[in-house]
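It is worth pausing here to work through a concrete case rather than discussing structure prediction in the abstract. The textbook approach is simple: state the sequence, then state the predicted structure, then interpret. We follow exactly that order.
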Amino acid sequence: MDYNQNNADIINEVGSGGFMNPDAIIKEINIKSGMFVADFGCGAGYFSIPVAKLVTNSGKVYAVDVLSSSLELVSSKAKLYGLLNVETIRGNVEVIGGSKIEDNSVDVVILANILFQCSDYNSLLGESKRILKDNGNIVIIDWIPDKVPIGPRFEHCVSQEDLEKISIKNGLKIIKKLNAGSRHYGMIFSVVK
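Step two, the predicted structure:
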């Protein structure tokens, strides 16, 4: 199946709700064939499924979530689209080692719409850093607090400014800001060496 021909179907299938365009965001992340990508808090596969098409069978997507129902949905969609490179993992990404992914094994970690649900940012970023290869990146996309009457409660959201402070505290540096839509912000981080 060709990625470009079927991407619109995939976006509609995973339920974008019109708030984000994963295709545009994925292009900015520069996902390539052969990459290994972890999607923390994968939900219904909003990013996992389109990314799996781009990394091809020479790459892999680890779809990690705490909910079995989300993982079953991602697994079903992967089968529907003939994607053999998606591994679903039930894990707690707020615990070091909780993703069950090997150290230094992924090129990109995606954290989309997960911060507002997180109680320990330091452990979440620590787990993300643990599994990254030396030149890997962490992509964070989340709700803009002042534009969330439809999304999570304002007090649960992390502003872009606060995330920048949290990332510096955790040894990360911003390498690119993403256009993540009208209700979200996005940034790509690398580990400070």
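Step three, interpretation. The chain has a mean pLDDT of 86. The chain has one domain: 3-191.
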